[in-house]
Amino acid sequence: LCCCSRVSVLFSVTFRKYFYTIRGLLELAGVVKCRTGRSAVAYIMYGCYCGLGGQGWPRDKADWCCHKHDCCYGKAEDLGCQTKTDKYQWTCENKMSNCCMNYTSHNDRCDKMLCRCDREAARCLRRAPFIPKYSVWPDFMCGYSNQIKCCLSHTHI
């Protein structure tokens, strides 16, 4: 998660902006780092829903953020978006991530949706406490029940 394909640094009079164009999930990692100040690596095995997959009941608020993000990506995939490979452009300024693109083609709509999914997840993670005991939570501790339905994720954050 630490390699970027391209990083351009733009300077303005009052702000320093970082403009990223990276692939797929690496963009999520960048947005999480921008908003939370924490490396996305810290969330790779966090709880039951952060990282790849997800099962059982989310452990805490941060895990619910990841569940909600999984649901958001699920909606994007239902619309034909490639959540693991689509890329989008964004900026990070003062711990705020902003999507920057035109929304005319199908890919642009997907880019917009994925950027919003990632931005909302990072905003949610910023507000949620990071509890170290969940940072390497084993899957078997999540139970083997089906994944929690997406409509439930909005009520627990």
User: Would you give the CATH topology?
Assistant: Phospholipase A2
| Global structural class | alpha+beta
> Could you give me the name of the CATH homologous superfamily?
Phospholipase A2 domain
Tell me the fraction of residues in β-strands, as a range: 5-15%
Number of strands: 4
Mean pLDDT: 79
Question: What is the CATH C level class, in words?
Answer: Mainly Alpha
Q: What proportion of the residues is helical, as a percent range?
A: 25-40%
Number of domains: 1
Named CATH architecture: Up-down Bundle
Low-confidence stretches: 1-23, 153-157
- Note the main sheet: 4 strands, antiparallel
The DSSP helix count reads 3
Short description:
With 157 residues, the chain is an alpha+beta fold. The protein has 3 helices and 4 strands, in the order E-E-H-H-E-E-H.
Write the layout of secondary structure elements.
Elements: E1 7-11, E2 16-21, H1 24-36, H2 61-78, E3 89-93, E4 96-99, H3 106-127
Antiparallel strand pairs: 1-2, 2-3, 3-4
